[in-house]
């Protein structure tokens, strides 16, 4: 069975519609900001859009998979009573990862690219690098928020935790922005922070799969569970 | 009495820090409703989780329908689909809607019938106003309605064996009566259909139970066809004055201001001749309480 089909079965339609609507809204706001403000002033406002994007992703994950890695939730007797039940869930989680990654990529890149095209600015190497640092930071913080959030069942605690993780993204993006406005171009600090976020993003991506797999596999065994 | 079994277990064992489930010989007779009875913490859910494959960490062997192993149960659709499982705890993801569960059931279980499911929903009055609301989240149902929803879900398949963990607990008395008739109907629907359910509501489920397994501290303390158990035990009532003389022969005994009431094994019944006592055929509830009392750590 295809991952998209599994995703459609596991994640309910309302969540999908609301999430897409919120994402489009944020995207429009991002494009508007990129068009309305001057080049770098727009970037500082776009940071807020990324934060809202991460929050929307965390909420969508809560309403789709809840605390899937918590002890009780991972039992899911209904899925376990079917031969392919857990496979469907795992495929849905993989698809969800791609959707999250693409969403945050589009949310970061599209306003800058579209804004630049409208305003006739040049897409310099510095700007492209800056854009990717922003993406890595936002991607890392949303991944971290989702991975940790899947161990919690209460939404407001999840939101509080993820707001702490978005600080990482804000911090990196602000440093990179200050750097980007400097005439000398991006410093090593921004490049290093961006690289750390990239590595963090890759590690949390791997963890987001292994963690769910481990929780589901462990749910078959009472002794190994805390 | 010889009978075919839907499930056989040999040397089933599962150890926890302060509890061990240890059942050398386990059987669920085919074509009957079997009640699993026991105190809290006796091991009922642990046993049901082992049988349904929700938990895999146990020793011993379980055989399904006389020939299939646990590996077959988990790997072969034709075996897994013959087993329907319902548990009140963590069964669906909380945000799933009724429509989503229908779609998932159609995808996961080739024998699931949407028409039958909708007909069960209607029969069990699951939705207000009688019309099916596909957008309703399962977590927004009351506990009783969630159980009805799960039962409707599992009964809409063509499973041969139903494993139900405490199906009666969240239900009201009327619905418990309905559950009894649903189980009866399911068993008579197809030869070999079998139901295995755990329950604390013994009196409510008594009419449907053909076979009973009474557990205590992870072991089977008593089991048998209900009619046989009713012949094995006798309910005794008498005056307080006779209690001291009768007590050594009784299996269990309780005293009240009108006299005493106790249970005696039929083989010991003749020991009561000469005493002014009344005897009655006990109910499954009375037998279960007596067996549990005899094995309980609770100070009565």
Question: Rg of chain B from C-alpha positions?
Answer: 21 Å
Helix content of chain B: 25-40%
Q: CATH class of the largest domain in chain B, please?
A: Alpha Beta
Under the CATH scheme, which architecture of the largest domain in chain B would be assigned? 3-Layer(aba) Sandwich
Written overview of the protein:
The complex is a heterodimer of chains A (226) and B (300). With 226 residues, chain A is mainly α. Chain A has one domain. Helix content of chain A is 80%, strand content 0%. In chain A, α5 runs antiparallel to α6 (125-149), α5 (85-119) packs antiparallel against α8 and α7 (155-181) runs antiparallel to α8. Chain A starts with a helix and ends in an 8-residue tail after the last helix. The mean pLDDT of chain A is 88. Chain B is an alpha/beta fold. Chain B has 2 domains: 5-224, P-loop containing nucleotide triphosphate hydrolases (Rossmann fold, 3-Layer(aba) Sandwich); 229-295, Alpha-Beta Plaits (2-Layer Sandwich). Chain B has a 6-stranded mixed sheet, with helices on both faces. In chain B, strands 11-12-10-13 form a 4-stranded antiparallel sheet. A 3-stranded antiparallel sheet of chain B has the order 2-1-4, with helices on one face. Chain B is globular. Chain A binds chain B through residues 1, 9-10, 12-15, 63-66, 68, 72-85, 88, 220-224, and chain B through 14-16, 46, 52-57, 74-77, 80-81, 83-87, 89-97, 99-101, 103-104, 107-109, 135, 150, 153.
């Amino acid at each position: 069975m295809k991952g998209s089909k599994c995703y459609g079965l596991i994640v309910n339609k309302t969540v999908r519609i609301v999430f897409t609507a919120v994402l489009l809204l944020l995207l429009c706001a991002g494009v508007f900001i990129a068009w309305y403000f001057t080049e770098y002033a727009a970037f500082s406002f776009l940071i807020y859009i990324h934060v809202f994007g991460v929050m929307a992703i965390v909420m969508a994950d809560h309403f789709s998979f809840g605390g899937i890695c918590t002890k009780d939730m991972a039992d899911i007797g209904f899925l376990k009573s079917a031969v392919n039940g857990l496979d469907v869930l795992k495929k849905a989680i993989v698809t969800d990862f791609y959707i999250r990654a693409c969403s945050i990529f589009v949310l970061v890149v599209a306003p800058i690219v579209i804004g630049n095209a409208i305003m006739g600015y040049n897409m310099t190497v510095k700007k492209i690098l800056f854009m990717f640092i922003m993406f890595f930071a936002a991607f890392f913080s949303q991944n971290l928020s989702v991975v940790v959030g899947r161990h919690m069942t209460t939404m407001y605690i999840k939101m509080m935790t993820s707001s702490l993780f978005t600080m990482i993204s804000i911090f990196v993006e602000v440093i990179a922005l200050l750097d980007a406005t400097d005439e000398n171009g991006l410093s090593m600090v921004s490049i290093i922070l961006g690289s750390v976020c990239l590595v963090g993003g890759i590690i949390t991506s791997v963890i987001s799969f292994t963690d769910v797999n481990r929780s589901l596999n462990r749910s078959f065994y009472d002794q190994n569970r805390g | 009495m010889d009978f075919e079994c839907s499930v056989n277990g040999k040397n089933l064992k599962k150890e926890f820090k302060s509890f061990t489930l240890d059942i050398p010989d386990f059987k669920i007779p085919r074509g009957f409703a079997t009640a699993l009875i026991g105190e809290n913490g006796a091991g009922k859910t642990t046993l049901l989780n082992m049988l349904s494959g929700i938990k895999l960490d146990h020793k011993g062997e379980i055989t399904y329908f006389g020939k299939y192993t646990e590996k077959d149960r988990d790997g072969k659709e034709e075996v897994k689909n013959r087993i329907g499982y319902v548990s009140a705890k963590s069964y669906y993801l909380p945000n799933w809607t009724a429509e989503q569960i229908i779609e998932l059931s159609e995808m996961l279980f080739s024998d699931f019938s949407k028409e039958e499911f909708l007909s069960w929903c209607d029969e069990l009055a699951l939705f207000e106003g009688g019309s099916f609301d596909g957008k309703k989240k399962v977590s927004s149902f009351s506990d009783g309605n969630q159980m009805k929803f799960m039962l409707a879900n599992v009964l809409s398949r063509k499973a041969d064996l139903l494993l139900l963990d405490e199906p009666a607990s969240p239900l009201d008395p009327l619905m418990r009566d309905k559950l009894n008739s649903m189980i009866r109907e399911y068993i008579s629907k197809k030869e070999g259909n079998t139901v295995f359910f755990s329950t604390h509501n013994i009196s409510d489920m008594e009419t449907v139970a053909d076979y009973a397994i009474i557990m205590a501290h992870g072991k089977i303390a008593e089991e048998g066809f209900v009619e046989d158990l009713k012949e094995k035990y006798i309910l005794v009532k008498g005056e307080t004055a006779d209690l001291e003389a009768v007590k050594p022969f009784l299996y269990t005994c309780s005293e009240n201001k009108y006299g005493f009431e106790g249970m005696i094994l039929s083989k010991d019944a003749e020991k009561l001749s000469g005493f002014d006592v009344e005897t009655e055929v006990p109910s499954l509830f009375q037998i279960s309480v007596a067996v549990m009392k005899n094995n309980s750590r609770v100070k009565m």
